[in-house]
Amino acid sequence: MLSAETISFQKKISALGLQIPRAQVVLGSGFGNALEEAANYPGWNLVGDISFRDIGIVSSTAPDHAGKYRLFSRGNNSVIFQMGRLHGYEGNSPKAVTAPVMVPRLAGVENFLLTNAAGGLMAEYRPGDVMIIRDHVNLTGQNPLSGENPKRADGQDIGPRFPDMSNAYDQAWRNRIREELKGMRVHEGTYLGVAGPSFETPAEVSLFSRWGMQAVGMSTVWETIALCHSGARVAGLSLISNAGAGMSDEKLDHFVILDTCRAAAAKIVRGLFSAMEKELKL
Ligand code: HPA
């Protein structure tokens, strides 16, 4: 599984004159223009793009999700920004949703920084705040590792049948990102992943906050599970785009949410460039 896509990906990376990138940042909803707005990040060169379609991965239909990898280099190192992710609510299987991270993972990328937009479940969370993900609850009812234990191209298992999820979100990355986002309002908490696409009812939001969850969204948990199974180092953060349904008088509107995210998203992207420089010594 994924071997043809992985080989195509490796070929495209070589064609751009790069070694296997050191890290991949997944840009979630609201982060669509963040790279342009954070452009000319000092010391990094834009090398080029690889579209999902060109390597056999389906493209996203969600607004603000382009469906490509953008490569940046710094000295001999490079990093990937995944622009656009796939979601279950678009009708994709959990395996399809994880392909845009697992193809580069199987090609040798080791670090993954996942971002998303999420509804805040804490009264003190405001739109534009960041929540670094300490842990998650997968309430989607599905898991990307269902079925035969996924294998590498050489037939070896990618990871154990029952992977340990005790430290799914890497502590060192969490500390590093918090450090680099100084100046923003940054929290740490548990992300609850739901299937969507309907937003939550106020009753669901009230239940989730009484369960002790801090943010709710429609992505990320499947990617974390598949990556964690493969032994990758994973970090995640939520950009709080709105208060959970029923917690404020605002009506939930996806396009308003995207707008709220833009300014904060550019700041976060700049912070992630610095976090990668320091954590990976680039
Ligand atoms: N709920 C679920 N997903 C979301 C939300 C929300 O309130 N905001 C952004 N993504």
What is the strand and helix layout of this fold?
Layout: H1 3-15, E1 23-27, H2 34-37, E2 45-51, E3 68-74, E4 77-83, H3 94-107, E5 111-120, E6 130-138, H4 171-180, E7 186-193, H5 202-210, E8 215-217, H6 221-229, E9 233-243, H7 254-279
Parallel strand pairs: 1-4, 1-5, 5-9, 6-7, 7-8
Antiparallel strand pairs: 2-3, 3-4, 5-8, 6-9
Bound molecules: hypoxanthine.
Hypoxanthine (HPA) binds at residues 117-119, 199-200, 216-218, 241-242, 244, 252, 257.
What does this structure look like?
This protein is α/β, with parallel strands linked by helices and 282 residues long. The protein has one domain (4-279): Rossmann fold, CATH 3.40.50. It is 30% helix and 24% strand. The protein has helices at residues 3-15, 34-37, 94-107, 171-180, 202-210, 221-229, 254-279; strands spanning 23-27, 45-51, 68-74, 77-83, 111-120, 130-138, 186-193, 215-217, 233-243. Helix 1 (3-15) crosses helix 3, helix 3 (94-107) packs across helix 6 and helix 4 crosses helix 7 (254-279). 48% of the residues are buried. The structure holds hypoxanthine. Residues 117-119, 199-200, 216-218, 241-242, 244, 252, 257 line the site of hypoxanthine.
What amount of the residues lies in strands? 15-25%
The first-level CATH class is given as Alpha Beta
What number of domains?
Answer: 1
- Written as H for each helix and E for each strand, in order along the chain, the element string is HEHEEEHEEHEHEHEH
Q: Which tags fit this structure?
A:
single chain; 282 residues; alpha/beta; Rossmann fold; five-stranded mixed beta barrel; 7 helices; binds hypoxanthine
